[in-house]
Amino acid sequence: MKRRTFLNLGAVAGTATLVANPSLTQAIRTKPARIIVLGAGFSGLSAALKLHDANMDFVVLESRNRVGGRVFTHVLDDANDLRVELGAEWVGRSHEEVQKLCKRFDIELFNNQFETDLLFRGSYQPSDQWEYSEEWKKRFEEILKNFKNLSDAQQRELDNMDWWRFFVNNGIPENDLFLRELLDSTDFGESIRHVSGFSALSEYAESSKKNEMDFKMKGGNGTLARKITEHIGSDKVKLGYHVEAIEQKNGKVKVTCTNGETFDGDRLICTIPTFSLAKIKFTPALPKEKINAINALQYARINKHAVLFSERFWGREDFDLITDTSAHYFYHATKNQPAKSGALISYSIGEKADVFGWNDDHLRKQMVLESLRPLARAEDYFRKEVNYYWGSDRYSKGSYAVYGKGQWFNIRPILAAKFINIHFAGEHIADWQGFMEGAVATGAEAAEAALA
Ligand SMILES: Cc1cc2nc3c(=O)[nH]c(=O)nc-3n(C[C@H](O)[C@H](O)[C@H](O)COP(=O)(O)OP(=O)(O)OC[C@H]3O[C@@H](n4cnc5c(N)ncnc54)[C@H](O)[C@@H]3O)c2cc1C
Question: What is the pLDDT of residues 35-47, one digit of tens each?
């Protein structure tokens, strides 16, 4: 399914071309004999799999010492083999490409849906006892239904407005607005005051009932990265290879890594986040408008703090909880992993994530236990904790791209446009932006474009 209609801007990942110097368009373009893939996240691995299937010679260069990128499964409890996701958690019902890969690699998808309790203004309300107001529920239904009728001009207008402003202009009652801020900000990783109205509305209008929070892979989402790597050949995926320079000359691409090793190819598929992209020395230089687009895009701050407890005191396997505390949102991270012990993840966004990320485990533990107080004396069950703050991740400085006002239609096509023999891919330029699905789809599309 195409989630977000394009306004005929002519930029599908990796096909439109940007050139700094028109003479570069005459770059020699023969059939490629070797393709270099930059990044072994889901986008790079999806591209590599397409190249493998097409019997193309390729190499994947990955800076980290593991595959998966922002998919990061962690074993929290060795004794019971309990695994939690420090990066991407949910596979959506509409995420067809990821589901196809799971089928191909024989990975079972578990139901990972939750029923959300609410802790707001000190009052704890179980999932069946809180709701948006009837008035707002009705109004929002109409808004969602009307999405497909929006003209190009209306879509652009919506993109120029933030999601919070859109609600206010549509007469949302104040209490509903507070709840939407708490819940929707978990989807975008920042306050809804920073999110493009178009980017947000398209996501809610075209997502599954549970907003794509539907499944998780057995063994953790990292299993898919591992299985693809084994299938294409681990020797093709070079870990610990940090790319620092890319040169294009006479129709060839030459990549230099910080360890001094160089790689030559006919095309390059670049799947890295914009923060990393900005650090690479390109010869010839990237066009100014691409550099401006790279500099304009922000990534959301998300912190994940996983806590292992000796007992699942929250009771329900499908427990999650939205709060107005710094811990923000909790979910049962070991659903479908039978054991007496279990883990909750505190998932915080924006400045709340900064507070978690900047502090130490002592303070993080206090914030988590305090937020869970209405539920239980969680300290009685506490066993261990692990924290990952994506706002300071070395490669992305954030969890996923967050398109702000006016950015969806203005900068995304520029980021997606190819540059001579370099094709771009990755979550940040995808139709399903912010999802594994987007990473996989753009990787495959870029590989097809590079093979042509
Ligand atoms: C906290 C969090 C929660 C999320 N929740 C969900 C969710 O529930 N569902 C969902 O579908 N998605 C979710 N996502 C998003 C999902 O993880 C991403 O969309 C997807 O994994 C991005 O894949 P990618 O290949 O585009 O980028 P990445 O995974 O970032 O891959 C890029 C790779 O390039 C490497 N690299 C960077 N620079 C260089 C360099 N110079 N040289 C060599 N290698 C380099 C990086 O190390 C990285 O491995 C979440 C992400 C986070 C962080």
Answer: 999 999 999 999 9
Pick the atom of ligand 1 nearest to 390's CA: 53
Classified by CATH at the fold level, domain 3-69+221-298+402-451 comes out as: FAD/NAD(P)-binding domain (3.50.50)
The CATH number assigned to the domain with range 133-206 reads 1.10.405
pLDDT at 232: 98
Residue 439, ligand 1, Cβ within 6 A: yes
Instruction: Tell me, using a 6 A CB cutoff, whether residue 426 lines ligand 1.
Output: yes
Mutate to test the pocket of ligand 1, among 42, 64, 67, 70 (most ligand atoms within 8 A of CB): 70
DSSP 378-401: GGGTEEEEEEEEGGG-TTTSSSSE
Backbone angles phi, psi at 438, to 5 degrees: -65, -40
43 lines ligand 1 (CB under 6 A): yes
pLDDT value for 47: 98
Architecture category of domain 73-96+213-219+301-392 in CATH: Alpha-Beta Complex (3.90)
Q: Which helix (H) or strand (E) holds 240?
A: none
Q: CA distances (Å), 213 to each of 3, 110, 216, 236, 364, in order?
A: 16, 11, 9, 33, 26
Matching fold, domains 3-69+221-298+402-451 and 133-206: no
> Which tens digit of pLDDT belongs to each residue from 168-178?
999 999 999 99
Quick check: CB of 39 below 6 Å from ligand 1?
Answer: yes
Q: Which residue positions in the chain have pLDDT lower than 70?
A: 1-29
Quote the pLDDT of residue 31: 86
| Residue pLDDT, tens place only, 360-396 | 999 999 999 999 999 999 999 999 999 999 999 999 9
Give the distance (Å) from ligand 1 centre to CA of residue 41: 6
User: Could you identify the atom of ligand 1 that is nearest to the CA of residue 280?
Assistant: 41
Task: Tokens 């919506």: give the residue.
Answer: 158
Instruction: Please give the number of the atom of ligand 1 that sits closest to the Cα of 213.
Output: 8
- Closest residue by CA, ligand 1 atom 5: 88
Domain ranges of the chain: 3-69+221-298+402-451, 73-96+213-219+301-392, 133-206
Q: Is the dihedral of CA 394, 398, 401, 404 positive or negative?
A: negative
Element (H, E) at 75: strand 73-77
Which ranges of 117-256 does DSSP label H, i.e. alpha helix? Answer: 134-146, 152-159, 163-169, 174-188, 197-205, 222-232
pLDDT at 30: 76
pLDDT of residue 4: 52
Q: Does pTM top 0.90 for this prediction?
A: yes
Residue of 188, 282, 345, 427 with the most ligand 1 atoms within 8 Å of its CB, for mutation: 427
